[in-house]
Design brief:
It is a single chain. With 155 residues, this protein is an alpha+beta fold. Helix content is 22%, strand content 37%. A seven-stranded antiparallel sheet has the order 1-7-6-5-4-3-2. Helix 1 crosses helix 4. The chain is globular and about 45 Å long.
């Protein structure tokens, strides 16, 4: 029996991919998109522009003992199509979980948005002792897509 080590959710949002991508690449908007409730705010983060960018977020969760910060290392970037990053406790190297947003235009005013939360590469025994995966559940990811649709509509 194989253990699932990622969750993928999908939703069609009635807005062009460029508008959705504009919201996703702005870390200042990530707290309003977060269905998990962990993201509190950005920490002087700039707009994401290419692979290799790192943006810092202020977070809060019992799994980390309260307030903490993450560094998010951008691993995928294709304008209006793909945005991906690996999250890590601030000041450390990514331990293996990744967030992947994929956008597929369906005509001019509609976009299929896929969000994947993948922890398949987490192997650090200390992280695995501290965090029970999946830390973010499917319904929370679906809520993130709902929040993204609302954020784009309100832009």
């Amino acid at each position: 029996m194989s253990e699932t080590r990622s969750i993928t959710v999908q939703r069609t949002i009635d807005h062009p991919a460029e508008q959705i991508f504009d919201v996703l690449t702005n870390p200042k908007r990530h707290a309003e998109l977060d269905g998990s409730g962990f993201v509190r705010s950005d920490d002087r983060a700039e707009r994401i522009q290419h692979v290799g960018d790192v943006f810092r977020m202020n977070m809060e969760g019992d799994h980390m003992g309260g307030e903490y910060q993450t560094d998010n290392h951008v691993t995928g970037y294709a304008k209006d199509k793909l945005l991906a990053w690996k999250t890590t406790p601030a000041g450390t190297e990514p331990p293996g979980w990744e967030w992947v947003w994929e956008l597929k235009p369906q005509g001019h005013a509609s976009t299929d948005v896929t969000l994947t939360y993948d922890w398949s590469k987490v192997s650090d025994p200390e992280i695995l002792k501290q965090v029970t995966f999946p830390l973010v559940k499917q319904d929370q990811l679906e809520d993130s897509l709902e929040r993204l649709a609302a954020a784009v509509s309100g832009s």
